[in-house]
Structures are given as structure tokens and as C-alpha cells.
């Protein structure tokens, strides 16, 4: 492996390594990216298709201004003429109207069945009896109050004065303006056609008392259509109330709530004269808004309000100056308009729902990518090889922001090219600011939410539920609150704190302006429109901007707590994270009798004393020192605490390979996880190159290599790309990087046959294992941890891997865990047998076999009839022999070495062959496996007894 001679990688080197890896990974996901982009393209094309079908229907002659052929010169040659006079009522809306018609102003008259009467919940005795609804004779009620009742009633008396109806047939509408007219019909988007005169509902004129036979017809001519409308009298009932609170109470009790079973009492209007007198006119007006129409940008339901104002103003003048004085309100009419086409912009109607899905679907994409790295433990793998938090955050954030920006740019460009008014009418600079702030908010939210999940499948389901749920809730709930002018603005702002509703509100505002602009032939949203109090885009931009900055900070803080295992108040103790300059002797307390049992084992005692001595020195050549390291997992579901590591003390010099042996569950992996920073020790300390694992892991990572128990690889990256990435994190550059990668691939037999450039997801288990070993050794790390590195390898690959490790240990410390005794004996300078969280013995393989293997193993196979003779033979050779195995004529015995002379064994076997048949026999020295079994079994039996 090539050496890294430039020290730890700089911030920008780490950032460059991660960016290159991410771009390579993104290139491999080309098909996924194409499918992602197809979704908005499909929705846009679907909207265009719907729009074209609707436009085709709207372009039919029945929906255009009417035309006919007119003989203008009397020569029999006709000329096509178009206009209102040739149109039906369905066509006039598209015609040019240079001189809109004039209509008399109207009041909103309650329908007969809704007019105010005396009921059990409105018990004023001056109201009409409820029986009038049966006869159809209920008057319309007007309520009055004020500080001066005499003045109030005097003024009100002039509002509905009884005088004969005098209609001029040559100018019917103008003569009708002299009377307080009203209708129970709904208002329209345009007052070019007043619906009161073109419906089956009557038009009323209000008087104090109605004369018999007061109904008469009125004939109207609009374009080519003739209409006849009935105008009838309705009595007006004026009632005094003591205060405005009484009026409010009566209005509230009579309010239409939509409950069909509830009785409804509507009034015509109400007036509070306040402090009015002969020199001061000050009035508050309640008006009937049952059929208020707030569609579009103008509340056209208010077109009937001016008549209420004129009515009381005219009555006040007559009260002061006499009945001959009149402030005549002649007419209301629309502004002139050019010829228009009937259009219905579906991109604006469906845009808020569809486009919120399009944009919000980036959220689960970013979220699952982050959770994937978390689930596969790739984030911690990168960190263990030297990638700092700041480079990771900066590049990951910029990477997802870049992807989101390209996605949104393609979306807007495509929507504009195919002509969707949602994009083409609204100012592109406003769209850019809105989308840019939102995608930043979305990426920040994804980083925060990623801390709550650890499984990609669960994350995907939850993410897409949020996408479609937010769109549907926005379209079928939130939009109704936006359109309800009575809903508190504070409630709207509170709902917009959820990013999905902020997105929907912004898209809704774009849609409203593009729809109106397309319908009216004007521009969409411009920057000056943000000053409009009814435009919510400004508050949405402010909310999203603040949320973006807050969520980004909270997400980074949560990541430091959740992913890095820091204390939630870590920022209060920054001084603890300073690099160590020398060993620090921690205080530790011996616990339990098992520590004293360990102290009785001479090799373990010597190792502990060596650690104690090294800790007193200011510097040492030892790469790793563990001092009374403990890990205790808390009890759950009624189970007791689990002691994974019990007071481990160990010292490893540079250039040594230390092997950890032990049965499953002995605590080896917990020890490795503490040393590589995956988990925190419960007590004790460990130092790597003089740095404390409790506080200095970020510095330790720069000189550490890890081969984890399970391969942590990106399935879409090749073996070469993995090594290039981790090599860059170790500060390898240029030719040195390429040389190191090539040597690493050759050393683990992944260079030839195109294997190096095959994606890791297509590797076999053995190939992945070899790649993990190569990753742990690239860049010349000073300390390497290998957790069962040869698992799943064939014999040839295992031998090759052993050669790699033997070469690598020359200038670094290696801790290796394994279940292969052959591997341990071949690679390790020293071994430690770990049982039930405790180190049972320490030494090189020969020492351990000499210390724990003081016996030979004698094996003989005969027929079953001679088993007793074989046992007598063994007892004769060694009275203290111990039978350890017997099955079908094969027996195995342990013979103490001090009782055995090997030549005597051979003689005894030759003698036995002359007396009975011996199929096979053997005499073997103790193996490392025997030592392991003996130590492990002895320790476990002791633990059971204790």
C-alpha cells in the first residue's frame, strides 16, 4: 500500500472526495433520474391535452360572439357582422362591449321563506308572526338603533315612503331607479347582465305599504333576445332596537348555518345612527351578504351594497331639507371591454394540486438517500475513514440542492415551452425566488426528518404518503380556508408553518394570478402585486425563508446528537473536544469479584500493570492503550443489564497484530465498536496515538482504517471507485492515489478480468470482503481494526489475504477478530481470548499452547469389541489419562506430557496390533483450538458457578 505523506486531508480535499463520489453515484442512477423527470413532464402534457380538448369545446360558435350575414347596401351581397345585437345570452360574454348597459342599483332581498319572523329563539313582539310564511305575505325587516331614537325613526320614515309607481315605458330602467329595488337572485362575475332581470325570481320595490295589484311586467331587449320580468311590491318593516348588541344577537340567531332543520331569519339591512344629529351624519350599516360572490379579485357581491348606502343618505337629506330633495342613484355598469375568447385555464385550476405533487416528490427522494446511508452505516464508515461533519454537510446539502435546482429548472422550462399559462404569465424572477427558497427548505427538512428513520422502506412509504397527503389536504382543506375571508389570518399563517402548505399557498397564488390574467387578458403576478394585502406570496416567502434557516440549524444539531452520539448539551463543553496532547489518567473503580479473579491470571495482570505504567509516561511508542474499558447495556423488558466488556486493559505497540478470540457474544464486536466510535464506553478510557476515544475521535479517524464485520459498500459504485473515494479521504492525490488504488486491487486479487470496474452490488460475498480489507488499508492508516476479515473467503483467497495483512502490519497496529484458529496463529503476534466480556489470557500462540496445552491427544480406532483393551492400554501408559471422546470404536484421550515418553507409546501400539485389529491411531500435540476450547469452557463454567 502506498504511504500518505501529506498528513490528514484538508476540508476541501474531503469535500472534493465526497462530491466526486456523489456525482459518480448520480451518473449510475441515470434511469432513476429519467423516471423522476418523466413524472412532471407527464402531468404537464396531461394538462395540455385537457386544455386542448376544453379549448376545442369552448371555440364552438355557440360560445363565441354571435355573427350574421347582413345586406348593408341592398344589392343582395351580405357582409358578416358580429356583435351583441346578433348574439344570444350565452354568447354576449365574449363580445366587445364599448358601451356597457346601465342597470338600476339593487338591494339583496331575503327570499320569502327566509324573512325574519317571531320565533322561539327570536322573540321580539314587533316581528311578524310566522304564519305569514304560509300566506306569502312576510315583509322585509330593517333594524334601527342609535343614540337618538327620534332622529333615527324620522330619517327611516323617508326610506320607504308610499308613493305610486310611475314607470316610463321609453326608459324603464331609469324610471325604476327612483325606487328602492331589490332581488333575491345571486350576483354574477360581471354586472353586464344583471341576473335579477333574467331569472325566474321576481324583482321587488320596497314600500311602507303595498297597494293592491302592485305587480306589473317590464319588457327588456338585450341584443337579439327579448325578456319580460315581473316587478312587484314588498312591504318594508322598520323596527327599533335599544343597542347594536341587540342587533348583533338577532343577526347571529338568524344566521344561515346550512342546517336544513334550523329556522332562518334574514333581515334586509340594519342601521346604527350612532351620534348622528342635524349637524352630524354618522351611520354604521349591516348589509345582507347571503349571496356574496368573492370569486376572482373583486368581491362582486358588494355591487348591491351601494344601494343601502344611498338609501339612508337620501333619507337623511329629505329629513333635513324636505321630501322634494333627492340624491338620485341612477345606475351601475361595467367597464368597457374588448372582444374576448372564452377560456378555462386548467393549468391554473389544477396547478396547486398537481404541481405540489411534482415539487414535493423531491422530498422522499432526498430523504431515502440520506436514510440509505444511515441504514447501510455508510455515513459512519466515511467518518471512520476521515470524512468530517462539515465537509459531509456542505457537499451533501449542495449536492441535493443542485439536483433539486436542475429538476425545478427542467420543470419550469418544459411547462413554459408547452405554453402553460401558470408559468408564462407569472414573473419568472418571482418563480425563481419562490422555488429556490422552497427547495432549500425541503432539503433542510429532509436532513431533519432523516434523523427519525433508520429503514429505507419505511422512509419511502412515509415520504410518499406525505407527498400525496399534503397535496390532497391542500386542495380539499387548506384551499377552503384561503378562500374563506372570515377565517383568521393568524390561522392561515399557523397552517403555513407546515412546509407542504407553504408550497401549496405559493402555487395557489401563482394559479390565481395566471387564471385571472388569462381570463382578463392581463399579466400574471408581478413584484408590485406582493404589496397587495390579499396576496399571500410575501408572507409565504418570509415564512419559508425563516423556516429554512431554523430547520437547517436544528437539523445539524440533531445530527450531531443522533449520529455522532454527542451529549445534547455538547455545545456547552466545547473545551472537552480539544485534541489530547498527552495521556490522561482516568479515575476508575474496580467492580465485583470477577476483576479480582482476572487479577489472579498472571498474563492479564501483567498486561494491566503494563497499561498502568504506560499511562504514567508522557509519550510512548504504543499505538493503542485501553485502560479498564467497560461497556454495559441497560436492561430492557425486565431483563438484567448486559455486561459486554468488563474492565479490559490492553496495550499494543506499533507493528503488532493482536488477535481477539472468543465465542459468539463474548464482547469482541462491542470492543471494536467502542474503539471505532460507533458506541461510547460506559467507563474507562482508550487512547489511539495518544488521543482519547471519548473526546478525540475526529482526530483519530484521520489515521484509522476499519474492516467492519459486515461489508459497508455502495452497491452502485465499483471497487475502483470505492478505493478512489477512500484514498482521497486519506489525502492521496494524483499519481500516488492511482498507484495506491492499483496496488490495493492487485493485493486482494480484484484487478484482473474487469472486476475492479464492476459495481460492488454484483460482487460475490468473498469479493466484497476483500474489497473491505483493501479499503481499511489504503492510505497508510496507523491503526487498523479488522472484524473477521476472512469470513466467506475460499482457501486461495484467504491465503492471499493473509499475505496482505502480514505485509501491512509492518508499520501499523492491527486488532483482528476471528473464529479461525489457523488464521490467528498465522497472522497474530499476540492473542487474547475473550470470554463473557473479560480477557482470560494474553500471549503469543506458542506461549498459550505451552501454558494451556500440557497434554497430548491420543486417538485409536478399533472394532467395538476391543474398546476396553484400548482403554487399558492408555491407562497403562498414563494413569491420569482423560477420555474426551468415544463413538463407534473410536476413542480419544488427553495424556499429560510429564507422564508420557513418545517412544513408549509407539511400542505399546505395535504390541497392541499383534493382539487385535487397529484401524487407525494417532498422537498429536495440543492445538490452538484446544487451548481456545479449554479456556472458554473453563471461564464459562466459572461464571455459571459464580
TrEMBL record:
SMART domains: AAA (SM00382)
Compartments where located: Membrane
GO CC terms, sorted: membrane
MF terms in GO: ABC-type transporter activity; ATP binding; ATP hydrolysis activity; lipid transporter activity
Domain ABC transporter positions: 624-861
Protein name: ABC transporter domain-containing protein
Ranges annotated as spanning the membrane: 36-54, 353-372, 392-420, 432-450, 462-482, 540-558
Record family assignment: Belongs to the ABC transporter superfamily. ABCA family. CPR flippase (TC 3.A.1.211) subfamily.
Keyword DNA-binding (UniProt): no
PANTHER family: ABC TRANSPORTER A FAMILY MEMBER 3-RELATED (PTHR19229:SF154), ATP-BINDING CASSETTE TRANSPORTER SUBFAMILY A ABCA (PTHR19229)
Family matches, as Pfam families: ABC2_membrane_3, ABC_tran, ABCA12_C
Membrane topology annotation: Multi-pass membrane protein
Keywords of the record: ATP-binding, Membrane, Nucleotide-binding, Transmembrane, Transmembrane helix
Amino acid at each position: 500500500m502506498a504511504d500518505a505523506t501529506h498528513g490528514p486531508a484538508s476540508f476541501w480535499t474531503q469535500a472534493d472526495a465526497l462530491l466526486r463520489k456523489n456525482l459518480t453515484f448520480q451518473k449510475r442512477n441515470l434511469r432513476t433520474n429519467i423516471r423522476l423527470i418523466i413524472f412532471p413532464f407527464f402531468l404537464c402534457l396531461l394538462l395540455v391535452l385537457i386544455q386542448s380538448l376544453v379549448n376545442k369545446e369552448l371555440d364552438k360558435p355557440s360560445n363565441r360572439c354571435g355573427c350574421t350575414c347582413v345586406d348593408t347596401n341592398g344589392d343582395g351581397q351580405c357582409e358578416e357582422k358580429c356583435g351583441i345585437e346578433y348574439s344570444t345570452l350565452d354568447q354576449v360574454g365574449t363580445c366587445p362591449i364599448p358601451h356597457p348597459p346601465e342597470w338600476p342599483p339593487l338591494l339583496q332581498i331575503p327570499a320569502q321563506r327566509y324573512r325574519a319572523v317571531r320565533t322561539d329563539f327570536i322573540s321580539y313582539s314587533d316581528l311578524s308572526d310566522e304564519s305569514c310564511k304560509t300566506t306569502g305575505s312576510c315583509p322585509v325587516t330593517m333594524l334601527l338603533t342609535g343614540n337618538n331614537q327620534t332622529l333615527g325613526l324620522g330619517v327611516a320614515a323617508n326610506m320607504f315612503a308610499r308613493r305610486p309607481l310611475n314607470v316610463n315605458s321609453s326608459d324603464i330602467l331609469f324610471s325604476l331607479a327612483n325606487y328602492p329595488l331589490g332581488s333575491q337572485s345571486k350576483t354574477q362575475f360581471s354586472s353586464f347582465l344583471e341576473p335579477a332581470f333574467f331569472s325566474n325570481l321576481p324583482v321587488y320595490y320596497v314600500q311602507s305599504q303595498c297597494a293592491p295589484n302592485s305587480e306589473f311586467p317590464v319588457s327588456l331587449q338585450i341584443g337579439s333576445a327579448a325578456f319580460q320580468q315581473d316587478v312587484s311590491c314588498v312591504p318594508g318593516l322598520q323596527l327599533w332596537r335599544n343597542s347594536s348588541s341587540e342587533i348583533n344577537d338577532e343577526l347571529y340567531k338568524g344566521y344561515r348555518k346550512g342546517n336544513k332543520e334550523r329556522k332562518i331569519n334574514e333581515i334586509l339591512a340594519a342601521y346604527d345612527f350612532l351620534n348622528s344629529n342635524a349637524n352630524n351624519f354618522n351611520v354604521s350599516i349591516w348589509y345582507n351578504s347571503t349571496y356574496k360572490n368573492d370569486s376572482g379579485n373583486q368581491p362582486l357581491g358588494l355591487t348591491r351594497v351601494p344601494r343601502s348606502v344611498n338609501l339612508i343618505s337620501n333619507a337623511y337629506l329629505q329629513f333635513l331639507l324636505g321630501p322634494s330633495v333627492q340624491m338620485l342613484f341612477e345606475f351601475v355598469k361595467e367597464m368597457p371591454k374588448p372582444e374576448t375568447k372564452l377560456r378555462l385555464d386548467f393549468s391554473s385550476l389544477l396547478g396547486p394540486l398537481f404541481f405540489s405533487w411534482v415539487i414535493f416528490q423531491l422530498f422522499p427522494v432526498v430523504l431515502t438517500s440520506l436514510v440509505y446511508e444511515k441504514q447501510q452505516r455508510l455515513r459512519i464508515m466515511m467518518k471512520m475513514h476521515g470524512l468530517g461533519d462539515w465537509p459531509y454537510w456542505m457537499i451533501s446539502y449542495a449536492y441535493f440542492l443542485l439536483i433539486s435546482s436542475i429538476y425545478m429548472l427542467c420543470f419550469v422550462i418544459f411547462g413554459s415551452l408547452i405554453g402553460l399559462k401558470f408559468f408564462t404569465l407569472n414573473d419568472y424572477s418571482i418563480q425563481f425566488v419562490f422555488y429556490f427558497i422552497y427547495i432549500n427548505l425541503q432539503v433542510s427538512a429532509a436532513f431533519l426528518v432523516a434523523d427519525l428513520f433508520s429503514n429505507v422502506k419505511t422512509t419511502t412509504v412515509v415520504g410518499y404518503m406525505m407527498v400525496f397527503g399534503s397535496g390532497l389536504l391542500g386542495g380539499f382543506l387548506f384551499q377552503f380556508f384561503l378562500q374563506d375571508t372570515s377565517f383568521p389570518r393568524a390561522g392561515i399563517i399557523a397552517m403555513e408553518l407546515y412546509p407542504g402548505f407553504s408550497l401549496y399557498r405559493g402555487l395557489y397564488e401563482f394559479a390565481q394570478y395566471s387564471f385571472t390574467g388569462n381570463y382578463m387578458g392581463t399579466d400574471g403576478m408581478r413584484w408590485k402585486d406582493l404589496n397587495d394585502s390579499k396576496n399571500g406570496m410575501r408572507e409565504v416567502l418570509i415564512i419559508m425563508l425563516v423556516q429554512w434557516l431554523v430547520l437547517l440549524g436544528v437539523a445539524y444539531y440533531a445530527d450531531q446528537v443522533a449520529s455522532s452520539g454527542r451529549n445534547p448539551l455538547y455545545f456547552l463543553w466545547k473545551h472537552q473536544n480539544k485534541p489530547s496532547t498527552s495521556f490522561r489518567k482516568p479515575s476508575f473503580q474496580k467492580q465485583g469479584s470477577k476483576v479480582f479473579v482476572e487479577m489472579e491470571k498472571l498474563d492479564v495482570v501483567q498486561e494491566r500493570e503494563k497499561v498502568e505504567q504506560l499511562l504514567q509516561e508522557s509519550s510512548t511508542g504504543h499505538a493503542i492503550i485501553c485502560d479498564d474499558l467497560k461497556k454495559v447495556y441497560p436492561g430492557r423488558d425486565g431483563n438484567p443489564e448486559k455486561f459486554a466488556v468488563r474492565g479490559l486493559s490492553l496495550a499494543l505497540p506499533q507493528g503488532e497484530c493482536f488477535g481477539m478470540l472468543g465465542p459468539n457474544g463474548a464482547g469482541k464486536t462491542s470492543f471494536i465498536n467502542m474503539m471505532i466510535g460507533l458506541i461510547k464506553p460506559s467507563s474507562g478510557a482508550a487512547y489511539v496515538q495518544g488521543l482519547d476515544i471519548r473526546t478525540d475521535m475526529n482526530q483519530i479517524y484521520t489515521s484509522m482504517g476499519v474492516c467492519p464485520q459486515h461489508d459497508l459498500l455502495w452497491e452502485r459504485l465499483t471497487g475502483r471507485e470505492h478505493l478512489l473515494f477512500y484514498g482521497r479521504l486519506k489525502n492521496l492525490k494524483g499519481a500516488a492515489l492511482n498507484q495506491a488504488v492499483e496496488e490495493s486491487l492487485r493485493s486482494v486479487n480484484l484487478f484482473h478480468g474487469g472486476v475492479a470496474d464492476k459495481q460492488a452490488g454484483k460482487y460475490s460475498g468473498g469479493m466484497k470482503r476483500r474489497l473491505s480489507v483493501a479499503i481499511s488499508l489504503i492510505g497508510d492508516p496507523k491503526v487498523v481494526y479488522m472484524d473477521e476479515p476472512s469470513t466467506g473467503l475460499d482457501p486461495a483467497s484467504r491465503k492471499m489475504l493473509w499475505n496482505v495483512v502480514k505485509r501491512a502490519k509492518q508499520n501499523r497496529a492491527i486488532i483482528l477478530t476471528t473464529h479461525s484458529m489457523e488464521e490467528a496463529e498465522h497472522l497474530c503476534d499476540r492473542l487474547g481470548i475473550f470470554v463473557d466480556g473479560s480477557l482470560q489470557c494474553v500471549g503469543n500462540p506458542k506461549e498459550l499452547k505451552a501454558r494451556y496445552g500440557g497434554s497430548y491427544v491420543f486417538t485409536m480406532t478399533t472394532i467395538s469389541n476391543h474398546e476396553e483393551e484400548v482403554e487399558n492400554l492408555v491407562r497403562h501408559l498414563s494413569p491420569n489419562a482423560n477420555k474426551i471422546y468415544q463413538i463407534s470404536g473410536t476413542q480419544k484421550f488427553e495424556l499429560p506430557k510429564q507422564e508420557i515418553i513418545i517412544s513408549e507409546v509407539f511400542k505399546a501400539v505395535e504390541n497392541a496390533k499383534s493382539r487385535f485389529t487397529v484401524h487407525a491411531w494417532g498422537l498429536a500435540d495440543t492445538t490452538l483450538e484446544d487451548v481456545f476450547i479449554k479456556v472458554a469452557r473453563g471461564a464459562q463454567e466459572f461464571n455459571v458457578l459464580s
